[in-house]
Amino acid sequence: MNLKMWGNLRLNQPSDFIQANQFHGYVHRSPYDHISTFNDIFNTVKISHVTDDALTLCLLSFSSTGDALSWLRSFPPISLSLWEDVVAKLLKNYFPKSKTLKGKVDISLFQQMHDEALSEACERYQSLLWQNPTHGFDKGLQINIFLGHLHAQSELIMDAATWGKIVLKTPNEASAIIENMAYNDYEFKEERELMHQKETLEYNA
């Protein structure tokens, strides 16, 4: 891939957006997240007589910095000509199998913490899934892991909301119930905090 050949190509605003979402290669930054954001931005860019592969490879140099840019430049010119090849190499280098295994373990060991609200537990679990996109768990198993590691009280509330056992619901039905319960829990918590703030202000007035 020859980065220099694009020196006279004027990309202006799209490259500005890409540079604002640069990938450094940091351990805490998911390359999957970067690629997803990159593709969203790239889909807004089209240049006549320039192939998608050539354009993505050009823009990738703008979206990389630090260790990631050094890694990109380590490849000989024109050695990377297809976007899918770059993505495969990027994921292999920055999201190895060991990271996938750790992510699967973290998800499997999820547990609702003491005094953690249902909405907070749900958000934390969703974050684990999002941070580890290669976990390989289907929706049904994701639901079972989450439900199996909730407090007994949370499980009772879930079952009461379904007039039975939530584990007997289909994955889509259970997912909708969990999302609705988590949303209601969040709303209740917000209202409770606002009421507490109001009472505090009235007491101090």
What does this structure look like?
By secondary structure, this protein is mostly helical. 64% of the residues lie in helices and 0% in strands. It has helices at residues 13-19, 31-42, 52-63, 66-73, 83-94, 97-108, 118-131, 139-148, 152-162, 171-204. The model is unreliable at 1-12 (pLDDT under 50).
Topology:
Blueprint: H1 13-19, H2 31-42, H3 52-63, H4 66-73, H5 83-94, H6 97-108, H7 118-131, H8 139-148, H9 152-162, H10 171-204
Average pLDDT confidence is 80
Proportion of residues in helical segments: 55-70%
Oligomer: single chain
Low-confidence stretches: 1-12
Largest sheet: none
Order of helices and strands: HHHHHHHHHH
Quick structural summary:
By secondary structure, the protein is an all-alpha fold. It is 64% helix and 0% strand.
What features would you highlight for this structure?
single chain; 205 residues; mainly alpha; 10 helices; 0% strand; elongated; disordered N terminus
